[in-house]
Amino acid sequence: MDELAINPWLALGLIILCLLLSAFFSSAETAMSAASKARMLALESGGDSRAGIVSRLLDTRERLIGAMLVGNNIVNTGVAAFATSLFVSVLGAEGVIYATAVMSVLLIVFSEVLPKTVAISRPEWMALIYARPVSLVVALFGPVLIAVEAVVRGVLRLFGMRINENQNVLTGAEELRGTVDLMHKEGSFEKLDRDMLGGILDLKDLTVEDVMVHRTKMVSIDAGDAPEKVVRDVLAAPYTRIPLWRDTPENIIGVLHGKDLLRALAAAGGDVAKIDPSSLALPAWFVPDSTSLQDQLKAFLRRKTHFAFVVDEYGEVMGLITLEDIIEEIVGDIKDEHDVQVTGVRPQADGSVNVDGAVPVRDLNRAMDWRLPDEEATTIAGLVIHEARSIPDTGQTFTFHGFRFQVLRRQRNRITALKITPLDRVV
Question: Is 232 found in the same domain as 263?
Fold first, then answer.
């Protein structure tokens, strides 16, 4: 036993050193893992070289964490060995028990809980402090980590799992969306702010077909009507831009702007008979139904126009899309003094909601703060038909996605009204 014992003061010094190193590895791992990469990039742009080091370390997160774990395990093993030697030299064989008990408390309190608590309270600040020491540790353990990574990947392959280097489970947009949702839940973001940021992130995932005004709801004018009737129809319409068609409503020949009509009327001295509405129409712009809202918004800005017709793969007009429709996906419904105030969402006293079948799922989610899926169907009626795999009859009830859906009205093959009740409100 004497041969195994070392100088007590040397052992005590090594124990303290190992505890400090263990605290460093624990706090560094926590700080680096919790540090915001966006914040680091902002600081790096401001000239902070340490932030650049942290950003590069976060780019190889797997190797960073591996280096911290290897270092921590080495010093923890060392502190256990030195403590055992010290206690055995003082207390004999029973010193092993005391060494285990004492070092367990010291490691848990001073090398794990305390440093991690400090690091998580100010992760960016701590990450900047640790930037250069951690980069040195990662470089030192580089060869060891490469071997460890190879072994880990080999073991995972045995279980059918393949992990690529620098693989991220979440995309940047998903991480941002999750952060916004969390801030809303914590009270830092209002619902409107959350919805607006979510709407911006959704633009690239939505197509013009998802938000267009369907052709059955389009307000249009027959170019073959008398000029007097055209003027009356334009003045009666709640919009400034009206589609013009000839022969059939599907044959769109252009878009008539109310201001152009008024200018022509003024130039004609108020004589409606002298006006040819067709000659005033702007050329119609047709876009494919698969165009993303992000691309369509850019196209609107590039062409300096606000109005386009949506066509399917056969060239048939499906509806129309306006700049306002896209903006509403970001900021919510925009109502002015000429808009028709029809929302189609009517909350009831018992917690249920009566909804028109044509209400878009996204609008319903925004209005009620729900999370009904909108990938397979645009409208709430379409969602029910998709889930039911049939066109339900009046009175039928379905339960899915945490809600109970009851068909209130049906006209031919269209569901026109539904009663939706969250399951936690069902008695």
Answer: yes
Residues 70/72/78/79 CA torsion (nearest 10 deg): -170
What is the token pair recorded at 377?
């169907």
Range(s) of the domain holding residue 291: 208-331
Question: Which strand ranges, in their side-by-side order, compose the sheet holding 317-322?
Answer: 213-214, 317-322, 307-311, 286-288
Look at residue 380 and tell me if it is in a domain: yes
Report d(CA 318, CA 76) in Å as an integer: 68
Q: How many CB atoms lie within 10 A of CB 290?
A: 12
Q: Is residue 149 part of a domain?
A: yes
CB atoms within 10 A of CB 73: 12
Per-residue model confidence as pLDDT tens digits over 101-131: 888 888 888 888 888 888 888 888 888 888 8
Q: Among residues 353, 328, 304, 345, which one has the least CA distance to residue 213?
A: 328
C-beta separation of 147 from 76 below 8 A: no
Backbone torsions φ then ψ of 162, nearest 5 degrees: -120, 120
Three-class SS state of 345: strand
Q: How many domains in the chain?
A: 4
Shared-domain flag, residues 192 and 215: no
More confident residue, 62 or 270: 270
- Judge whether 336 lies within some domain: no
Same domain, 192 and 241: no
